[in-house]
Amino acid sequence: MIRKLIARVFSRGERAPRGAVPLAPRGPEVIGPARHNITPERLSTCARRTCDTLQQHGYRAFVVGGAVRDLLLGRAPKDYDVATDATPEQVHAVFRRSRIIGRRFRLVHVLCGADVVEVSTFRAPQAAGDDGADQQKDAHGRLLRDNVFGSQEEDALRRDFTVNALYYDPARSEVLDYCGGMRDLEGRVLRMIGDPTERYREDPVRMLRAVRLSAKLGLEIDAATRAPIPGLAGLLANVPRSRLFEEMLKLLLSGHAVACIERLRREGLDRDLLPFLEAHLAQSVAARFVMLALARTDERIRADKSISPGFLFAALLWHEVLGEWRAAQARGLAPVPAMHEAMDAVLTVQAEKLAVPRRYGADMKEVWLLQWRFEQRSGRRPWRVLEAEKFRAAYDFLLLRCDSGEVDPALGHWWTEFQEADDTRREAMLLRDETSPKKRRRRRRGPRADGVEDGVPTPDAGGEPGP
Ligand code: ATP
Ligand code: MG
After folding, report:
1. Of 289, 295, 308, 280, the residue nearest 364 (C-alpha)
2. In a domain, 313, yes or no
């Protein structure tokens, strides 16, 4: 009802005040090739072919979303999305190499060689008619259903930011702009479509997207889009944890993790995602460590090098593990059991906020455990450490600890040299006087029955002095 009323008002040519993007169709601004820098050749072959083929079959098809935004900014898009008026079944029928994916949110993946383009049918924000709408939101206003086909205008208005709602037609080389996205892109502004508070309530992840996209693209978040965020940060608690993890990963791997984390903190969004971060960043060594880890990640990503998410999360949580580890040792536990207890405690609390998948959990634990093993520099132990699967990551982690001032840089230098040295030099480097005379005597008497073989604890054994 209200939507119809607004539609009528705007169809008389009135404009919403700047800052509030109307949630009612008003027809697109058509931006011709003279006013934008996208040429069909700049698109991926797969995206172009997908649009061409759909159009040849009589459908409308456009490149949409982040790809158009990035091309207009002169950047290489990460991936391509195509929006069309064809239903998923119709798209699937056109492309031999395609598959329909998703149950709630049905999309088609069109494959060209190793390349994939995601094709979605124009969708409306919610079901037509006022009465059914509420049933698709939870008690906090979060949208539970968003899979109703609609017009292109509706499809534009259900998107998050104006700069993400631009459609590029390769055949005509035109950009269709329903929400003033072109002007915002030129002004380097990230602006929510519609009422920001309502749109964050529908999907709180949009707050994280605002932070990530503004940091990554160098856009200023518009004041009205930014203002409600601190007050709504708590809504992230209602989002499935696996989705939060995925979004957090995108943020940390954006190549702008430092800027993103700083913005998350500024907006009060970090508390619900990484509960430990806030406490860490108040301490200078821990803050230096986290920021160094993020800065290295950014450098690697910008240099197109690989990054292990396990490493990154291990770094974010390290000082928490360290605190728990020290506390467990103070309670009398030996270093290795204490480390296991600390790791489990930290991962359990973190899992309540953000579901770090199990496969990363195992990597994180190995990197953490190796930190203790780096201290053990006598006997055969350093050789075994070199053979550990996660040695390289754990060594990089150790260097970060040195650089942040947590451990003596001499330990990092030792491991740098040990890796490069020949066997004779390695033998000479071993520390001979690490264990107490009592332990040396015990070792001479023979192997122990508690899993500590030749004085070298297996990862699950205990009994050695900690750092
Ligand atoms: P990038 O791929 O660089 O991370 P993107 O904007 O392309 O950024 P995608 O997740 O690929 O992000 O989404 C593609 C498009 O889908 C977006 O540009 C936007 O139009 C729409 N979209 C994505 N997430 C949301 C959301 N939470 N709410 C509304 N629209 C969204
Ligand atoms: Mg994208």
Report:
1. 308
2. yes
